[in-house]
Structures are given as structure tokens and as C-alpha cells.
Amino acid sequence: MPQALNDAALDQLFRTARTYNAFTGEVSDDALHQLYGLLKFGPTEANSTPARIVFVKSEEAKAKLGPALSEGNYKKTMAAPCVAIVGYDMRFFDKLPVLFPHTDAKPWFEHREQDNLAWVAMRSSSLQTAYLILAARSLGLDCGPMTGFDNAKVDEAFFAGTSIRSNILVNLGHGDPASIFPRSPRLSFDEACQIL
Length: 196
What we know:
Helix content: 40-55%
Order of helices and strands: HEHEHHEHHHEHEH
Number of domains: 1
CATH architecture: 3-Layer(aba) Sandwich
Largest sheet: 5 strands, antiparallel
CATH class: Alpha Beta
Number of helices: 9
CATH topology: NADH Oxidase
């Protein structure tokens, strides 16, 4: 990397970025293509890229999502311009001959027990969710990630008959500053880190 990002970019991505509970505006299909065009470059285990994303924008799709939401997340999610359902493909290893071409990595995963395989897929799709958040912020969008939903209902509504399972939801749009809480504390370096 040639140089560090400037303070304005670091603020937009981290320091002043917040989790929003209400959104305005629209999220264009072009913005979603740009967002994926950025997040896809983030590293995952063996370049497995197990995340599969459904961008929910239509009223019909929101009606399918609604019954899976917890009471506290229902209104804000239904009102968000777009909701990203980030899932993970339990058969991500089928893509490894293309995604990891320099060695035969498919056997590393295809015969693992389901619980172990789910852990690998969930871990990397969680990384990809973080990349989605940073990509959205870099494009001027705000985010509201959440896990307050019934995964089984989301899987039935959006991924039935597939090898995909839901992981995290992320509301996307232009955040309403009135919807955020005061910033919660963070651990200091000495509380969270060691240099050995």
C-alpha cells in the first residue's frame, strides 16, 4: 500500500461511523454492484468466499423477511431501503477449483463433518459481512447490522432447497442521526491486546 488513508477516510470507515436504527433515501442496484465489487476482494479461508447475499428491496421480499425478525428489529428493517441477508454456502468448496486454482483444495473441506464445515463457512462469511460494512461506508452508505432474527425462518423463506444458511442481516441506506445512541465505550489497547 503506498500510504495510509487520511483522517477523513478513517473517520468515514471507523471513527465517526455508527450503527443506525433508521434510514432515509434509496440504495440503487448500481450501488449494490459497486458494494459487492469491493467486498469480494477481502480475504477468506483458502479464498473460499462462502458468503451468498440476498439484497432485499421490494415490498414482496420484505414481506417474506418480516416474520423472521425480532420485535425490536421489525420496524427499522421494514423501513430500511435495503436489507442485505448475508448467508453462507455449506458447499462453498465446490467453487474452490476456480477460486483456489494453484492447488486442489476441495478435498480439504468436502468430507468434513457438517458442524466443522459450518464453522468454516460461518467464520469466513462473517469476515465478508465486515467487508460489506466497510464497502458500504466507503460508498457513502450507512449500515445497521443485526443478528436478532430467526435463522430457520429466513432460510426457509430465501434459501429453501439450497445449501445456503443465513448468518447476519445488514440494513443499508442513509442513516438518520436521530436514530443513534451515544457511542458505547470500547476497550483500551491494554485491555484487549498484547505485544509479545
